[in-house]
Amino acid sequence: MPHIDLNSDLGESLGAWTMGDDAAMLDIVTSANVACGFHAGDAAGILSTLKAAAAQGVRVGAHVAYPDLAGFGRRSMDVASADLRADVIYQIGALQALARVAGTTVRYVKPHGALYNTIAHDQRQATDVIEAIRAVDASLALVVLAGSPLVAWARDAGLTVIQEAFADRAYTPQGTLVSRREAGAVLHDERAVAQRMLRLVREGVVEAIDGSLTRVQADSICVHGDSPGAVAMARAVRDELAQAGVTLQPFA
Q1: pLDDT surpassing 70 at residue 110
Q2: DSSP labels, the chain
Q3: What distance, in Å, lies between the first and last C-alpha atoms of the chain?
Q4: pTM surpassing 0.90?
Q5: CATH architecture of residue range(s) 3-248
Q6: Which residues form the signal peptide (predicted)?
């Protein structure tokens, strides 16, 4: 039987600012990428999300990012290697401590936003992130953009690599994500997205923004927790896959 992981970015509320519905998403996903305070999230909220994930049996990963609260981690940064390595170590360590108190364990790392997109192709910053993960715990898996150069760089460094596809994002014919600055970059039709992800699991392809098919080999599917209608979309994807006989299970 085919199987796939379903993940979402959670723990991103900050003070009086609420982002997404963590409780509802944790009833749907199998893995939770939990913010570490650099792009979003405060300590109390992150701890609450971790406790809820532990109660639901959802696997937890560190959603590390550039230090960019104002830009929600979506602004590219040319961070010096020493700073980037230390930033990633700091974030993983903070989440590990909170997770321990919450009764769970950090099992993987998934970079967020601009950091995720940058290290998919920038070998210098990718190496910094890889070295930081290895310095903390080389058994932590790294979630990466499916088909990107980072796949080989991380594997060559000895990390377990989880290739990821995005349910609610448009793809270019080359298999990369369409920039959020472009029209049509974020998808909103629940039914279409669910059918699109079923085809991904069955055939290993997604329809690109120009209508062509692009090959995407994925171990996990992400539904962004901050998107409008995120919970309904995640549930539609899960239901579509389950009804087709696909097993939903965490990769970690």
Answers
A1: yes
A2: --EEEEEEEE---BTTB--S-HHHHHTT-SEEEEE-SSSS--HHHHHHHHHHHHHHT-EEEEE---S-TTTTT-S-----HHHHHHHHHHHHHHHHHHHHHHT--EEEE---HHHHHHHTT-HHHHHHHHHHHHHHHTTSEEEEETTSTHHHHHHHTT--EEEEEETTB-B-TTSPBPPTTSTT-B---HHHHHHHHHHHHHHSEEE-TTS-EEE---SEEE--TTSTTHHHHHHHHHHHHHHTTPEE----
A3: 18
A4: yes
A5: Alpha-Beta Barrel (3.20)
A6: none
pLDDT in tens, 122-152: 999 999 999 999 999 999 999 999 999 999 9
What is the number of alpha carbons within 13 Å of residue 111 lying toward its C-beta?
30
Cβ(22)–Cβ(56) under 8 Å?
no
What pLDDT band is residue 228 in, cutting at 50, 70 and 90? confident
- Find the angle CA(236)-CA(242)-CA(247) to the nearest 5 degrees: 130
Residue bearing tokens 């590990």:
96
pLDDT at 252 over 70: no
